Amino acid sequence: MKLGSMPIAVVMQRRTPRHRWADEAWAAVGIVPDNGKLPPVQVLSESAERDDYLVSGLELELYPDENDGYYENFMAPEAKVFVLWRMQDGRAMPVRASVSYVEGTRMFDSGEHADGVAMPAEVQAWLRAYLQAHYQPKPKRGRQHG
Q1: 81 and 31 in contact (C-beta within 8 Å)?
Q2: What is the residue-wise DSSP string for 75-125?
Q3: Whose CB among 28, 59, 120, 145 lies 3.0–4.6 Å from 115's, allowing a Cys bridge?
Q4: Model confidence over 126-142: pLDDT tens digits?
């Protein structure tokens, strides 16, 4: 059962690396809340070395069975939004995003393209409010002697 959601847009980037075996490199590099007024794809900048574009239509969703992953990510030194993306029509397009550390790990282990992007303050505040309302950390157990 979904307990919360936030629409987002993802900033994707194409770079021309200085590497003889790669013509271009793609990555998710930013997240912004989506107020619903953004076009599906918006070019932010274009050059021979780098293109940046904003892709809307994604949603961060919160489910109680991922609470440990949300908490672990939130408490990390730098909280992330994890973005899974695929190449579509010659461009990297995000297909899923999550604030769960556990789901992010599954994305990286899937063999597909995934990136961890710094979590914006608006998303951190939203996640903090969710965790305060729906998550209780498990008590730490002392040493077990046997």
Answers
A1: yes
A2: HSSS-EEEEEEEEETTEEEEEEEE--HHHHHHHHHTTSEEEEEEPPHHHHH
A3: 28
A4: 999 999 999 988 777 76
Q: From 48, 49, 8, 61, select the one nearest 30 (Cα to Cα).
A: 8
Q: What is the mean pLDDT of each run of 10 residues along the chain (146 residues)?
A: 95 85 87 93 92 96 96 97 96 97 97 97 97 88 65
- Residues near 74 by beta carbon (within 8 Å), at least 6 away in sequence: 99, 124, 127, 128, 131
Question: Of 70, 61, 78, 76, which is closest to residue 136 (Cα–Cα)?
Answer: 70
Contact 79, 66 (CB under 8 A): no
**Rg for the chain (alpha carbons), in Å?**
17
Q: Tokens representing 56? A: 């809307």
Paired with 82 in beta bridges are 98, 116
Whether the CA torsion 78, 82, 87, 89 is positive or negative: it is negative
Q: In angstroms, rounded to a whole number, what is the distance separating the alpha carbons of residues 93 and 25?
A: 13
